[in-house]
Records
---
Amino acid sequence: MQAFTQYTPTEIVFGKGAELRLADMIRKHGGTRVMLVYGGGSVIKSGLLPRLEGLLREEKIECVAFGGVQPNPLLSRAREGVEKARAFHADMIIGVGGGSAIDTAKAVAHGAANPGADIWDFWVRKRELTKSLPVGAVLTISAAGSETSNSAVITNKETGEKRGLGTDFNRPAFALMNPELTYTLPEYQIACGVVDIMMHTLDRYFTKTEGNGFTAEVAEALLRVVIENGSKAMENPRDYDAMSELMWCGSVSHNGMTGLGNAVDFSVHQLGHELSAMFDIAHGASLSVMWGAWAEYVLEERPECFARYAEKVWGVKNGGDIMETARTGIEKTVGYFKSLQMPVCFSEAREIGAQPDSVAEELALRCSFRETRLVGQFKRLDKKDLIEIYRKANRFNA
Ligand code: NZQ
Ligand code: ZN
């Protein structure tokens, strides 16, 4: 086990009616003038946003709403949010929605607390983030884990870059998590969320670190629960228990717990981000497209890790042939993504389709930050490796 620091300061209110605690939580965490950041309108249609605004009015907390955040949220919209938050003198920013609304809330908080700074400079490490405003979250989709994570992912459309920023200033002060708020999700978004929750653990689980027993067991338990309840949620999105399991696992999967003490990998996320930046494909779908190709490409680095995964997560009986067991685990995973109607290669993704090899090369160039970095830890991937994986994903069909 490697040395680690675990810092998950977010106060979580979980269960039916959790959103009714909004005013309490704002006061407790020092907010007096808040901006509510939301997406393309699902929270208006469901009545959640007007309900929250009404609650805050009753409690005499000043608030302003800022919507129009799209999935794979844009830097340009976040910059507009910064202007609005500063004009309103907001002292707390609250994301109402999923990863896109919450990540934009984080970006707005950073910009509002740092007048004169261009927020993109924080994402490209040109400028160090040393202060921000507190952020809160009212979660409506179990997926990205942004409600407790230290990350925020923003797309710069002008440069074609989708980048994550990891900092403790991204940890929300509080998260209100009512599984009933996810009942209105379309099937496709539930499926994207299940893949993303799994991937936040898989990207930590496949590691070169040995002998990290507790963390591995936590990861395996989480994956089993998500797989079972993901299928239940697809059958019945109003299954409170299934939606609760997904919501809680979504947070734990990305708050650090499932990779503590591991050298974590995150290659599949990096590979997927370039697909989203180029084709605007949903984050979860970008991951299901890439995982099988990545897994097959890196399998030989440590087949015993894949074999253990097959046994513990999928119940595969190990007949003594490690490679066979490992491959069965990969097939089961890809088969599960398919059962959720998720794409597992370029041609199955409607936003992408079959592509010429030149596209795999361009994606690899971008993913390697123009050959200035290696990607991942399980196998350190250079541009040549990345090209092979993108090519494989282009044609992959297990
Ligand atoms: O925009 P609205 O109208 O709200 O609709 C959204 C959106 O179309 C809809 N939706 C959300 N809750 C709903 C609902 N529709 C009906 N009923 C509800 N209850 O779902 C769509 C997707 O929303 P989004 O916020 O984009 O989903 P998700 O939570 O999957 O977030 C994805 C974004 O988060 C980033 C991803 O890259 C992507 O940009 N990530 C953020 C991370 C983090 N901050 O820690 C980690 C992740 O790895 C990820 O990269
Ligand atoms: Zn993710």
Note: The mean pLDDT is 97.
---
Amino acid sequence: MDVLGGKRHAVPPVWIMRQAGRYLPEYRETRKKAGSFLDLCYTPEFAIEVTMQPIRRFGFDASILFSDILVIPDAMGRSVRFEEGRGPILEPIASEEVDGFVAGNSEWGALAGRLKLVLEAVTGIRAELPDETTLLGFCGAPWTVATYMIAGHSTSDQAPARLFAHRHPEAFQAMLDILADRSADYLVKQLEAGVDAVQVFDSWAGVLDPACFKQYCVKPVKRIVDSVRARMPDARIIGFPKGAGMNYREYAARTGVTALGLDWTVPLDFARELQKQVPVQGNLDPTRLVAGGAALDEGIDKVCEALGDGPHVFNLGHGITPDTPVAHVEQLLRRIRG
Ligand code: CP3
């Protein structure tokens, strides 16, 4: 929280995106007990347990609520399921369905019943966490959530959503607006329930041309930030527009986020420039953590040397992958903390 407030710490705080996940045997155990992935998210007892697992094992400086960005479309009536080996599956939304989708979700109350279970988990996690461990909440950015709603599954380049945006700009804008408004409500509820700060994941920011980046990434995230701050002026919000490249500068200047999550392709000299505007988080390539050894140590040292003079939260440049050895996470913490 200090670093998000603009302070520098000689040893940067560290957490890992997807730190509660399949690389941990205790996660796989709980996941089996829960049944489906969404049952894990919607059963507070299980969500609390898996959120705590990486904190107990590694003592990260921050924990992140165990949930998924797709609980928002799920709670908005576009039911989501997760298939082994395929990831999320949704019924693709057609342009003619957007009016109904918007009308049915004009108030937070439409989502409240389902997401109450996530908010219960937040309160439970805060009660179990050590006082000095930050609890992060999150949501998906409207663009990234919309890509899954439109394609109905993971794709390599989100061409279906890009095409939808060009063919049906009004319906697409209406979708982004309603996603932004309900996501802002959701973040406020998470902050009220006990999270210390929130992160907005825009994992697919990197596939848009500059005009679309402005319209579909910058503006909707600004809408979320403004809406949250209108109710909670001190809210700390980390923006993570993965793959945004040169557009990171505009995103930092225009969205109003407190801090920037950097993916591993961001050059460290450019990262230092961005760090003059806002605190930064990142940005080790997750495959260095899989490889371990010198590849890991060298990667960590480069990131810490480049960003160590300013406010920096150490993280990967994207989520940890299931093939990561637990011993390499231990190596990472030893290298950073000494
Ligand atoms: O960071 C954390 O530890 C918090 C939990 C978290 C998950 N997903 C758990 C999860 C968070 C913050 C997310 C965000 C999320 N979900 C994003 C944005 C961040 C990113 O990683 O890009 C996106 C795009 C999703 C959508 C999603 N959820 C996909 C595409 C998948 C399938 C991925 C895969 O590798 O199978 C998921 C499932 C998911 N969400 C898992 C976890 C731990 C794996 C589920 C399992 O146990 O089978």
Note: The chain has one domain: 25-337.
---
Amino acid sequence: MRKPFVGGNWKMNLDAAAARTLADELARTVAADGLDGFCDIAIFPPFVYIPAVLGVLRDRPSGIMLGAQDLWPGPAGAFTGEVSAAMLIDCGATVVLTGHSERRHVIGESDELINRKARAGLDAGLSVILCIGETLDQRTAGRTNQVNERQLRAGLAGVKPDQLVRLTIAYEPVWAIGTGKNATPADAQDAHAHCRAVLTSLFGNAAAASIRVQYGGSVKASNAAELFAQPDIDGGLIGGASLKADEFLGIVKAAAASSQAK
Ligand code: PEP
């Protein structure tokens, strides 16, 4: 039984006051409704607002985890503009995204760099969400499973068995991110089942059955339930809809309900 996990990736949005307000609204409802008992929840503010959001989450305990959108794989040194795993931990983050499609396709990160980032996060004790997913051209060419398999195998090379409890995969078809287009629940389930088969071949049945695979790509409160009802979909990674408290909480509630129904 996998507990669903919903992450809110705020990307490069909000200001300090808006970040505090959003975190406070989320924490109030999650605590009042005990949602973290049914669903793990994390929010990923821009680096510079992590301390402000940490203050809110400390004042209003709710079980919401604090995350970062990226990290640099080295421990310290001449890496202008970058942030290490140790710095994230020092600022109160417990989870980090790696390989988000905007890092792969806008910034140009390679599978090899993403693997170094994932291992650095896990080695430092962070939980890591490794994001994978095919572009529209790759899907149209029938290469969805092949691309996801390559990104999984490359991204997870060298990850140790005892680190898998802190690993989550986010399957996010690039063509569905921020576009309002979704994979159908059936197409998403197919891709998730294939990801789980790859995880089985990498780590064995028991580990693969316990690793959560989130879906990401234009998830909203109105479409979350049908996606999360799929057997291999374990919650979601949410971009645009995570910036509105009501929408994000609707998605969290759909995930919590899915865990009771499965
Ligand atoms: C994302 O950025 O991971 C994402 C899924 O974005 P959106 O929900 O806006 O498609």
Note: The chain has a mean pLDDT of 97.
---
Amino acid sequence: MSTTRGYAALTAGGDLQPFEFERREVGASDVAIDILYAGICHSDIHQVREEWGPAIFPMVPGHEIVGRITEVGSAVTNFAVGDLAGIGCFVDSCGQCTNCKLGKNNYCLEHVTWTYNSTEVDGSTPTYGGYSQSIVAKADHVLHVAESLDITGVAPLLCAGVTVYSPLTHWGAGPGKQVAVLGLGGLGHMAVKIARAMGAHVTVLSHSESKRVDALDMGADDFVCTSDANALKDLANRFDIIINTVSADIDLRPYILTLGLWGTLVCVGAPGKPYTINGGDLLNQQRSLAGSGIGGIKETQDMLDFCAANNIVSEVEVIDANYINEAYDRVVASDVRFRFVIDTSTI
Ligand code: NAP
Ligand code: ZN
């Protein structure tokens, strides 16, 4: 065991505060990582505030982790000390079920061990996330990170990046496709960059007019401010794919009506409350409503390689650890450009 420092919420909705805890010994199949940066995902806030149901406390959030390998177990062949490495939303899966064998171990049918607010496969040992100085994890759930990328913007790829890359590839974003990105926060801005690099025509649908210039600068072809109720009417039957990243409880109907023939609205945003859907809106144009959750380890590596090849990183505001609570409030107010990343040396 080794002691590490982190930031934890001790109770539901409580402020995050300094917290010391133990990491396990490095086993034969494990690596130890000295964490450099950890992104703040809106899912961290949903879980700290129990917006997805009862959670495990103390909670050290953080599932967008980048750092350097400091130790490798005796059976590890894919990493060496000094390598740049990443960890995303989960740190273990069974490897044997149908989904794991398909590479979709994010949907493991046995037990997904989430990076925090979860338990190891024993069902009792709690997991602690990336708002900390170090972590120990199974090497086959750790990702390789290219040295060429600006390291401060890499951590958000591990959740925000793969969460939009997976549906964009699954639903065929590319040349000739009209992609809309609903909500320009952490996930949304990664969707703009990735969809654009895939060759799609990208429209941002945002309720924040103040984000227009940034959206166009990062590669969007069009920007539509949705706080103008009439703006969406001009987009009727337009899109092939809509990636809905909105964290709040919204009415999907006006957006579904902007889907064209065989268009799909993919929910990745997870407000924790049900949507109301009118079946008639889906039968017209043979539209689909879908969802998507992060991505498997292989597709996470594919996404990191795609981002390295296209020089894509997240737009970040790097913060000290003592700013986390203020950062949470700003994320909820849609006031982040476009991801907060904690410099974990400040913990
Ligand atoms: P974020 O940075 O807070 O972005 C969410 C965006 O939604 C905001 O920037 C804002 O964009 C829009 N929005 C927020 N409140 C709104 C409101 N009341 N009405 C209309 N639009 C609103 O959050 P994030 O980290 O990108 O995460 C987004 C959601 O995805 C969260 O629910 C998170 O839990 C979920 N998530 C899911 C997965 C998955 O695997 N499916 C993975 C990660 C995160 P504009 O200002 O541009 O309108
Ligand atoms: Zn996340």
Note: The chain has two domains: 2-159+313-346, 160-291.
